[in-house]
Input
Amino acid sequence: MRNKGFLIKCFIVYLIFTSGCGFIAWRDGPYKGKVIDAETGKPLEGVVVLGVWYKELPSPGGTVGSYFDAQETVTNKNGDFKVKGLGLQIFSTVSEMHVLIFKAGYEYVGPGLWESLKLDGGLMKKKVAWEGEKAIIPLRKLTMEERNKSETFPSSPPTEAPEEKIRLMMKEIHRERQERGLE
Output
């Protein structure tokens, strides 16, 4: 009986010390949204949405992140998308999803935390509308002049990500580079 009490106390101490390093339990995803043309309000088909997760580990200099997983999808004819997420996380040090949204010829969103879409001045200059948990994300079509001047070319997905996890995003980035005459 004394061993059982000791184990319970050890477990409680463990929970206290590790609670700052992650969450005890949380559900990641699904992440739902709709991408629309900022000027016309019409849905955009074929927009790549890439979700990336990082493990966050404490260090003396602050939190250090390392690649954990990635999932990508494209918007359908209605502009809708869904990223499954990682599901139930227990004693996890995995961060919430970082998102990158891109279609050749349009401004891009990210990379940044999904939750920052809810903040003014977050990932987007224009406010993202929300229908419950579904983000309505407006993308502005860029002129070729804007595209060529732009320093806001989407950053590449994490180099640690396996090719099969980022194939759609890399294809769309390649398409943008071709249209701009960079390849």
